[in-house]
Amino acid sequence: MISAVFLFLAVVLDRLLGEPRRWHPLVGYGYLVRKVEHALYPAVPQAEPVWRMRLRGVLGISLLLLPLTGLACGLSRLPWIGQLASVLLLYLAIGAQSLREHAQAVLDALRAGDLPLARYKVSMIVSRNTSELDETAVARATIESVLENGSDAIFAAVFWFLLLGAPGVVLYRAANTLDAMWGYRNERFLHFGWAAARFDDVLNLIPARLTALTYILLGHTRQGWQCWRAQAPTWYSPNAGPVMAAGAGALGVLLGGAASYHGKLKQRPTLGLQRPPVAEDIARAIALVQRSLWLWVALALLAGLLNWSFSHA
């Protein structure tokens, strides 16, 4: 019951305060990640065996995850301070309001007919090239970011908090940040970042599918289910596939397709049904994620209440 209450408080804090503008712990953590990276892997080694590069990566994630998780575990056991820390750590981890604000900024620019501004705003939440996107492509990129980051930045963090408390959410958020920084399939990170990418895949395996299920329950259920079953296996990511396919079907829009990353055109599978997205579909995607979050909160509170009732019967 107490974890569900902490979840409710953290979500309310996030809605009221949003993401801290200064002194966010993840900024400091990112700086630490870079320091560890350059200490363990200062340059792309020449003729170094794959196993040794992967071992460097395993050592890196161990140094960056285990002490933080242990610290969170010890902190969460302290009377009063541990409870406050649990709420604050989850609040800092979920970022639902930040995702909403970034997507809303793109929508506002499109509504105002300012395509250059919309391209700039969407470039802040996606890694693809945005300088030549038309309105449909801007809307598509924004919706994809909302759906996928809803899973990565919100629901997976909530899942691990409910399962393991403060240590779980710290472990997940730190691992997810490592994947974002080291999980690239390029010459430098293909092997060094292998462990970070695989560990993040494992941590997101269940949360991603629960997120996809939530999307289809709160959207066009039959379409979402059909897209999940038929299209998710075609996507390049085992966890993003179910989330994106189910979300596209639930919204009744077409996502995926060709996109330019770092100057190279990438042909991606098409996800969803019916029609290309328009600007107002961004608002629908934001609403879908928000409804999904409150459903998770309600179910957690209900489960906690039932557990408390049975234990005190």
Tell me about this structure.
The chain is mainly alpha-helical and 313 residues long. The chain has one domain (2-305). It has helices at residues 2-17, 25-40, 50-76, 81-94, 96-111, 115-123, 135-182, 194-218, 221-231, 240-251, 280-311, and strands spanning 254-256, 259-261, 264-266, 270-272. Helix 2 (25-40) packs across helix 7. The protein is globular, with a radius of gyration of 20 Å.
Short summary of the structure?
The chain has 313 residues and is mainly α.
Write the layout of secondary structure elements.
Blueprint: H1 2-17, H2 25-40, H3 50-76, H4 81-94, H5 96-111, H6 115-123, H7 135-182, H8 194-218, H9 221-231, H10 240-251, E1 254-256, E2 259-261, E3 264-266, E4 270-272, H11 280-311
Antiparallel strand pairs: 1-4, 2-3
Helix pairs in contact: 1-4, 1-11, 2-3, 2-7, 3-7, 4-7, 5-6, 5-7, 5-11, 6-7, 7-8, 7-10, 7-11, 8-9, 8-10, 8-11, 9-10
Task: Characterize the biggest β-sheet.
Answer: 2 strands, antiparallel
The proportion of residues in beta strands is under 5%
Structural class: mainly alpha
Order of adjacent strands in the largest pleated sheet: 1-4
Distance N to C terminus: 15 Å
* Oligomeric state of this protein: single chain
Continuous helix count = 11
Low-confidence stretches: none
Q: What are its keywords?
A:
single chain, 313 residues, mainly alpha, two-stranded antiparallel sheet, two-stranded antiparallel ribbon, 4 strands, globular
